[in-house]
Amino acid sequence: MLYFVAISRLPVGIGLLFEYSAPLLVALWARFGQRHRVRPRLWAGLALSLAGLGSIVPYLLVAAAMRHLPATSVGIVGMVEPVLAAAVAWLVIGDGEALNPAQFGGGALVLLGVALAETARVATPGTTAPPAPDTAPAPVAAPR
Question: Cα 130 to chain center, whole Å?
């Protein structure tokens, strides 16, 4: 409840700053507030995530994609990200972790939706702009 009160009073930029830096704040609290040992690879992962892989690189990739694709396609294909993230995590973590049938079904449903949305567009015929009107002033008839 307090979270929603606080977030409603903050500017959006400050709220996003808190959201994106939350993992770092939790690690700092664990290290200095609770005095737990935090592994060096956690700090490296946080640095990669906050400095590049979690913000700068995805932003640049989306901007580059929008130069070559329509914004609707970029947005629709962006919906695949959670499915790919779950698949990569499942493959990398392994160790007895398993996706249940509902998770597989949800991922398949998202992929099907993306495929349908991308292929359902009606191709518009190449339209050409109408010829520009003649910009030369019309001849004025001489008075009689």
Answer: 38
| 11: helix, strand or coil | coil
Q: Domain spans of the chain?
A: 8-54, 70-120
Q: For 2-60, give the DSSP string.
A: HHHHHHHHS-HHHHHHHHHHHHHHHHHIIIIIS-----HHHHHHHHHIIIIITTHHHHH
Asked if residues 107 and 86 have their Cβ atoms less than 8 Å apart, the reply is yes
Query: Hunting for tokens 């590049």 — which residue is that?
Result: 52
Distance from C-alpha of 102 to C-alpha of 98, rounded to nearest angstrom: 11
Q: What is the number of helices (H) and of strands (E) in the chain?
A: 7, 0
Structure token digits, residue 64: 């580059």
The answer to whether residues 85 and 58 touch, using CB atoms and an 8 Å cutoff, is no
Total count of residues recorded for the chain: 144
Rounded Cα–Cα distance for residues 2 and 9 (Å): 11
Tokens 């019309």: give the residue.
Answer: 138
84-141 pLDDT tens trace: 888 888 888 777 777 789 988 998 999 999 889 888 876 666 655 555 555 555 566 6
